[in-house]
Amino acid sequence: MQIQGHFQLEFEPVRDAFAALFDDPQERGAALCIQRGGETVVDLWAGSADKDGQQAWHSDTILNLFSCTKAFTSVAVLQLAAEGKLDLDAPVARYWPEFAAAGKAEVTVRQLLCHRAGLPAIRQALAPEALYRWQTMVGVLAAEAPWWEPGTAHGYAAVTFGWLLGELLRRVEDREPGPVIVDRVARPLGLDFHIGLADSEFDRVAHIARGKGNAGDEAARRLLQVTLHQPEALSALAFTNPPGMLTSTNKPEWRRMQQPAANGHGNARSLAGFYAGLLDGTLLDPHWLAQMTREHSYGEDLTLLTSTRFGLGVMLDQPGKGNATFGMGPRAFGHPGAGGSCGFADPAKDVAFGFVTNTLGPYILMDPRAQRLAQVLARCIP
């Protein structure tokens, strides 16, 4: 496999580890970008971007980043808080009055950000087309009763996070959430990152497909069993209602919509550049970064059925937990995306990391491919 891009010589072991990913014949395409101290020290890509393995992965290839998007959305919300345009500890209903229904009058913005609001899933069966109808989805969520008493537990809002925080952004800023996030977070840093992708960009989007024959880790198998055998359970509905949330990534309508939990499009550079912008204070000042990275939720996740640890819109490292560490140091924070893409920062090493792949793995939290690259990276830094 020919590896494209560049790297500083002290990071050659990282380049070798990236190349080794393609020893697996199922690995189709991937990219890796690492910044240290604001300088790009690794920028690599390889493999194929299309469905049939005929189109090479290029320098400007982008793809669906899935839940890596959540961190971008959360920064936009925190910037509004920093500007005094919203209060994290105010009820969501202050900005979105209809949200007060069904016992949610006291649910706060902070609880949405740290997955403690009790709204990871929707009980009412929805039609597949609801996925693309913003007003339908926010109306249903405004009427939904929490699955637990808000603030007393946490459960990952895998996709509902996008409608909940996106509608909050829309109410406060009086425009669609995609442009709010891109204008606030991506444009100042010059990131190739999109929420609501223009048709003119479709020709450089990588086709995403699942790998075969890998059952994943214990957490993945447990969640699969619940989805198959308990279709009305919270954990199942979080990923299946409305239908198509996990199977639509290559559809034009998915790319065009603005779902700021799950359908941001970008590349490894946009992930590394975003986390570098957090480390250097461009996106948030130290007070607000500290808020973002302070532990707000930790322990058994009622959606994912495994231990998760969250700040505000970012996952925090769980050292010693194989499926829940980014692979570097205990202060690392960031967000994985479904199937393997991952972005994070390690403040102790001043590292910003972005890895993307169009070969979906079956893991629930961290993908071993990104973890291996991060572990090799850590050994390259004194």
From TrEMBL:
Residues 17-372 form the Beta-lactamase-related domain. SUPFAM superfamilies: beta-lactamase/transpeptidase-like. PANTHER family: BETA-LACTAMASE-RELATED, BETA-LACTAMASE-RELATED DOMAIN-CONTAINING PROTEIN. This is Beta-lactamase family protein. The lineage of its organism: Bacteria, Pseudomonadati, Pseudomonadota, Gammaproteobacteria, Pseudomonadales.
